[in-house]
Specification:
Layout (H helix, E strand, L loop, with lengths): L1 H16 L2 H14 L2 E8 L3 E8 L2 E9 L3 H11 L11 E8 L5 E11 L2 E10 L7 H4 L3 H11 L4 E6 L6 H12 L6 E5 L9 E5 L8 H9 L5 E4 L5 H12 L3 E6 L4 H10 L4 H7 E13 L4 E4 L3 H12 L9 H5 L3 E4 L10 E12 L2 H8 L4 H10 L5 H10 L5 H7 L4 H4 L2
Parallel strand pairs: 7-11, 7-12, 8-9, 8-10, 10-11
Antiparallel strand pairs: 1-2, 1-6, 2-3, 4-5, 5-6, 12-15, 13-14
């Protein structure tokens, strides 16, 4: 804590003295120590505020006067090879920075003209941070088993879905790390390449010169790959080539934006893909969210209100596999909250963990897709086959004391009707 206080003081002193290079470096260094994913520099009416996104939530850190903002923006633009004299157009760049304590990181920098001045957002990618293995990310029980089974398949499509910033790319990298062997050729087509891994052939798309996901995927097929990872499926053309890749004997990973595993099927069908192609190629769909972990130093038992207790009982009743959590914990349900302490900067949470809803394609689900069954019926069958929903796995992690029910219901949809079937 003392070191953090010193870094904040250094940042405040560099603002007071007008030392622009020191201020930019202190801003980045302090953000790293707080485990921030993004730095926001936002011009307001009278000042410019700096906010950090820590564990998925924005926190205000300091403010500085308007008169030094142009110099700060110029400094950041120089670092990332952007045009200093262009202030009317948004710009995107990247930079590699080494802090005084020797930590190297990639910064993705975005500038945006606003009515009060240029706003800057820096996305931090710590190069020294290793990719966690699947259980460390939060995969457990049937979800982990389904994932490991899918990774052993010779071909097929594995899709990860969730909102921006829910850890989809990290999950895919973690899976690829398991498959990264000397006798396997792994190709990735990304926008941008977020983490560089030895052993992978990673390529970054450039839509401005017509190097799109679809074109990149086509080229990857001519590079004798075994496994292909496509950053995102955005259109019909990309999903068609991904399906073709799967049918020609490749294992394909990608992400798509939907709210749950089963809704991904509807999204692909709405892109114009015939049900028989979807049923024969998609092997696994992972829906994920990130929740904040309770601070172990100030965690305390809590009793949820009657409404939440009703939701919890309904969701828990739908858990098919009893391997997910000890029966004793389901009988005597105890949940936790936190008071806030110096260890967690009085937030009550420290770090994040993933909630995973993993739907494995079975022959019964394939028949339902071919028969064009509705999503609620498909989901009910998937749950009977061992799928644990985001709400259910969230409750399991809350019962284990890893997170709070407030966090679970902040990110997971309440699905009373499905769970009661």
């Amino acid at each position: 804590m003392e070191e953090l206080t010193q870094k904040l003081q250094q940042l405040q002193e560099s603002i007071l003295s007008g030392n622009i290079p020191q201020m930019v470096l202190s801003t980045i260094s302090y953000a790293l120590d707080l485990r921030s994913s993004d730095i926001h520099m936002e011009p307001q009416e009278n000042t410019v505020r700096i906010r950090y996104r820590v564990d998925g939530v924005l926190r205000q850190i300091v403010e500085y006067p308007h008169n030094i903002h142009p110099a700060i923006v110029s400094r950041i633009k120089i670092m990332s090879n952007l045009k200093i004299d262009e202030q009317r157009m948004p710009q995107d760049g990247r930079s590699t920075v080494t802090t005084k304590d020797g930590r190297e990181m990639d910064l993705r920098i975005s500038t945006l003209p606003t009515v009060k001045g240029e706003k800057v957002v820096m996305r931090i990618q710590d190069k020294s941070r290793s990719i966690p293995d699947l259980p460390e990310l939060g995969l457990q029980g049937s979800a982990l088993t389904f994932m490991e089974d899918a990774l052993s398949l010779p071909n097929g499509i594995i899709l990860t879905t969730g909102p921006t910033g829910s850890g989809k790319t990290t999950t895919m990298y973690s899976a690829l790390t398991r498959l990264n062997k000397v006798d396997v050729n792994i190709m990735t087509i990304e926008d941008p390449v977020e983490i560089q891994l030895d052993g992978l052939n990673q390529s970054q798309v450039h839509p401005g010169i017509d190097y799109t996901f679809a074109n990149g995927l086509r080229t990857a097929l001519r590079q004798d790959p075994d496994i292909i990872m496509v950053g995102e499926i955005r259109d019909r053309e990309t999903i068609e080539i991904a399906i073709e890749s799967s049918l020609t004997g490749h294992l394909v990973f990608s992400t798509i934006h939907t709210n749950s595993a089963v809704e991904t099927l509807t999204r692909i069908l709405n892109m114009g893909i015939p049900p028989f192609l979807l049923a024969s190629t998609v092997e696994l769909i992972i829906a994920q969210r990130l929740v904040r972990k309770l601070c172990p130093a100030c965690k305390v038992p809590v009793t949820p209100d009657a409404e939440i207790t009703g939701l919890v009982n309904s969701a828990v009743a739908g858990i098919v596999s009893q391997d997910e959590i000890e029966p004793e914990k389901l009988k005597n349900m105890q949940f936790f909250g936190s008071k806030g302490c110096p260890e967690c900067d009085n937030i009550g949470y420290r770090g994040r963990i993933g909630l995973y809803e993993v739907m494995r394609m079975t022959n019964e689900l394939r028949r339902m897709i071919l028969a064009e069954a509705n999503t609620m019926d498909i989901e009910a069958v998937a749950i009977k086959g061992g799928m644990v929903t985001l709400e259910q796995i969230g409750i399991i992690k809350a019962l284990k004391g890893e997170t709070s029910l407030d966090e679970v219901y902040r990110v997971a949809k309440r699905m009373e009707s499905t769970n009661q079937k």
